Structures are given as structure tokens and as C-alpha cells.
Amino acid sequence: MHFDLHCDTLSRCRNLKESLLHSEGAISVDRGLIFDQWVQAFAVFIDDDTRGVKAYREFLAQAEVLQKAMAESDSIVPYDKDSVRDGVCNAMLTVENGAALGGKL
Prior knowledge:
The protein is of the alpha/beta class. The protein has 3 helices and 4 strands.
């Protein structure tokens, strides 16, 4: 099983208006399908200087990149620790730093 705990591909896809399925960045769903079992943590990157509503909106915009890919393709599914599926990207959404939390855990 391939388990990657971090990539910043969501912010790249959002900024360049690329599909997560066919991204030219470090990770693309199409290229990752070489693995029999693949779990990918997609990190939402929020700049340290971005706070409050702006940080929350950036989080939602990047999360939408992942949601759109899942809606468009059966090759990417939500990660389920009890049932990692073969032949697809088992995706989890993560946050790279605490800016998106606005100082409230």
C-alpha cells in the first residue's frame, strides 16, 4: 500500500484552475493509479498571513477542488480506514497549518 501523508496539490489546482484528476503538479489522480492501494492526504494550504473569513473561504475553495474530482470520477473516493479500496485514490482532506482554524481549536 502507498500512503502519502502530505501534498499541496489542492492549492496548485485551485490557483492554476487545473483538475486534480489530470494535474501537472506533484500529484495527479491519473498518475497515482499505478499503485494497487493508494491513500493520499490532500493538504489545504492557508498562508500564515491569511486569517478569519478569508482563510475560511480559501479552505472551502481548495476543498472544492477535491469534491469536484470525486464528483467527476470513480477513481478518487473518500478514505475509509476500515476499507481501503484497491485501484483508486483513497483521499483524505487535511489542513497544513492552523490559520484555517482562526485561533479556535
